[in-house]
Amino acid sequence: MYRTQLQLLVIVFFIGTSLWGKTIEVCATCEVKSIKEGIAIAADFDTLLIKKGNYKEFNIVIDKPLTLKGENYPVVDGEDRGEIIRIIADNVTVDGLHIINVGTSYTTDYAAIRVVKSDNFLIQNVVLEKLFFGIYLERSNHGRVYNNKIIGDAVDEYNSGNGIQLWYSHHVQVDRNIVQGTRDGIYLEFSDNITINNNTSINNLRYGLHFMFSNDDVYTDNTFENNGAGVAVMFSKRIKMIGNLFKKNWGTASFGMLLKEINDAEIIGNTFEENTIGINIEGSNRIEYKNNDFISNGWAVKVLGACYANSFINNNFLYNSFDISYNSKLNDNVFEKNYWSNYTGYDLDKDGIGDVPYRPVKLFSYVVNRTPETIILLRSIFMDIIDFSEKVSPVFTPDNLLDNMPLMKRSE
Amino acid sequence: MLKILKYSFYDLMRSRWSYVYFLFYLALGFVLLFLNNDLSKAVITLMNVIIVLVPLIGTIFGVMYFYNSKEFTELLLAQPLKRSSIFLGQYLGVAGSLTLSLILGLGIPFILYGLFRSDAIWDFSLLLVTGAFLTFIFVALSFNIALSNENKIKGFGYAVLLWLFLAVIYDGLFLMSLILFEEYPLDSFSLAAILLNPIDLSRTLILLKLDISALLGYTGAIFKQFFGTNKGLVVSILMLILWTILPIWRLVYKSKRKDF
Lengths: 412, 260
What we know:
heterodimer, A: mainly beta, Pectate Lyase C-like, 2 domains, 39 strands, 11% helix, elongated, B: mainly alpha, 84% helix, globular
């Protein structure tokens, strides 16, 4: 019994060492002085241990399954001459590097780390600075991008790149990254089954997170703050958005979240705070909005164009200038059991549900939709008076757009 | 003139109305800041109050004071005094004491809540400046109305109507015309319409200085381009000064010719 265990242990040990390979050290005083050299002499499944130092290298191609591990964040300086690391083999790990000075080009998307047609990659604990594109995944599946820090210094949209970009890549996990100062923080195009959790995307020029033609993705517990226009979800199906924080996307053309041609999505437990527009919805159907908090936004929800069969249930609308804005008289969406801080009704039977329905669309927001110039009358007494009269007897706003069961207390 | 100004001023102080007005603003300021510690948010709420109440109180007070002190005015007219200095003195006395109540009443709570350490100080000063202008404008307008109407009821009626027109009806007409002519470019029209009404002008000036201006969206950009720059600010202040000077000039002109 004991013997067989020992034999097994020995076997496992041998398999282990052959599988994990040997470690090659890279440093200024080592035998191997550059990362490229290290990759050239390495065998499959070897580990390159890159010691602290400054490596002026670019166009590093990783063409075999290797682990690149940085010790104390060695600096890889591309000197603005182009792409820095390109991964073209499966099972590659890049860990703990500090990559700076990616070249800018108007014809090629130079990236700090580009993964091309490779599966099972892991990119973690990497710090990127002075970049064009950060981490670029191209037709690469089943990988993980974890705990990276991407600090861009983008000024203009036309000559800046995205922090993390996924293009035709499926089943990728993007976790705990911090992305700031790029064009789009995280950008997905034609990428399905992606999970994006616990990331922080702030101060980006355009969108914090951007979906294009990507289906069945989930993003939870992320923070999107002070981005040029917030988060954009476009032309995608079955996206789950849960527990995210959209904050301070404040500007004349900003919003917390933009939904365009989105179907069958779930938006649950998110917080929208101090955005010019909380959610901007265009042509999106069968979406479930549940347990979200809309706090101090200009418009909490702005509905434009054909949006059918959406349901808003158990949300809190607190102190928004406009709760809902609608540009048509037709309504096919359900509002039920939400809490509206502007609600002035009463609850005689004390069941926690107001006895008078609430009308979330103000006449003013209807007028503004029709003639945008009228917004200049914001906060004038005349507007308050006609809003009040419209509330008493609706003429212009869709008369079936109401919450029949408004909550008396904020839903938890 | 200064003597009459001083007399009117002290008269108002003695009549306690100034105190009531002062205490009202003091209470308003404290309650607002107590409920909401955020100075810049309190400025927005105050703006709503100021653009409604200041013109209303200025109008009512001006008319009331003018009619009440009519006998005294007639007594003064019998003295060897210039007519312009009598009326200007009274006018400045009323407008000055109202403005002082406003500035002190709102200033004290805000200073106690740390105005000088906050970046809301410019917004707040703008609020007070426009408040002062509105007081001067509406007291002057109401003096004009009172001077032209011997009948007190009529005078009051016109004064309230004037306030109602500028505060509410004007915006209604403005809105109607915007909707009616929505096919046309309306930028310069709405700019002009805003400039022509002191209440709207004050509201827009303050709004554009605050965060909330982002709500104006890209239409607001046009206004921001105008009011946000120094040139726009100068034009708006000039407009407010014009609104003050014109009624005062008419007051002096009419008072010289009126047969008492």
